[in-house]
Amino acid sequence: xxxxxRPSEGEKGxxxxxxAAAVLLLLVTAVMVGKLLKGDxxxxxxxxxxxxxxxxxxxxxxxxxxxxxxAFAVMVSPLCLLPFSAFFLVWYAANVALFLASLRxxxxxxxxPSGWRDLPRQWAPAAVVVVFAIDNLFLGQTNILVMALVYWxxxxxxxxxxWWAGAPLAAAVATKVFPLPLLGYFAYRGRxxxxxxxxxxxxxxxxxxxxxxxxxxxxxxxxxxxxxxVVMPYxxxxxxxxxxxxxxxxxxxxxQAVAHRLLTRVDAYVAARQRAAPVFVNVASLSEAEVNWLVxxxxxxxxxxxxxxxxxxxxREPRRQAVEYSLAIILxxxxxxxxxxxxxxxxxxxxxxxxxxxxxGEDLSAASRWGLRVGVAAVVVSVPLLANWYARALGSVCWxxxxxxxxxxxxxxxxxxAEAEARGSPSL
Length: 428
Description:
By secondary structure, the chain is an all-alpha fold. α8 packs across α10 (192-208) and α17 runs antiparallel to α19. Helix content is 69%, strand content 0%. The radius of gyration is 22 Å and the shape is globular. The protein has two domains: 1-237, no CATH class; 243-428, no CATH class.
């Protein structure tokens, strides 16, 4: 009788997960309340100011710290009716809820069991990226919101609701234009309704939604200012808007930023912190034009590797589709002009996919299994290295993400071959 009442290993695991999550949440909440009391408000204050300006009819032109589409100020404005303290805490609580929602969406996309009994395994990917999530919370950032919207869009595609799937992806773009390149992936996979729906929803959110509150003319003026200040420098010259040196400091883990830090003599320290002396980590002193050509070559290599791994046939097996989504997300992170460390919270789905493949790796080669292990381990190791600015300047998160990309790409190729063999056709 005593043996029957003794908790199983699975029950012990669930208890430890719940206790660890509760303790972590209490600690983070205490820090957030402390930041509020000390006035350490970070970007939450920026969103609040923009939202209040949208409500009062003031112009958003010239707000140097607000680099988002005007539509986001309108979307967040209902929360800005609250006093700032309430807004700050509601924004924090909403982001915690969005992280949990993202975890469930990631589990659904990789076909991991979502029941109570599998709680420890579900939380393993969250444990890997939780520091990136906490970074978002402490900075008051929007990347958890963007992640949840992107995962939701992917989930709706899997449910066959492509027109509706465009709405959350458009909302993510209207919040932060960073995930827009994902439209290229959906176009590549022939998701015409998904792409068309996203474009239509983007037009509504960016041009129509703000009009009743801002007026068509003012909204177009603010859109034009945002486009010329933030978007066009990136599209025309590959520059990160008006961030200047801040786009090349050690916080930026994109391929473009890491290449410039390593191959040109550029200050790798955060300009905003006003360090007395510049910091250099370059191993070569190429010209900016030469580095730009190398960056373009790297982008081309990443694109070619994606095509080689994924082929031309649309996935039929859910695990392969989850891996393709993961590869697409990683490419967006790496090729963006701006990918500060908190952006990499979006590795939640790629890590979940890698762990699920390792658990059910019967279709994988030994090289793929080792690649996945190395990739996940690299991301895990990159987390404590966040505390070391020199490691970040060398691109520790960027290289770890590349390692995970290689492991997932090898696995995707194996899954594609297995799927082709199952239906008796070439693995295109």
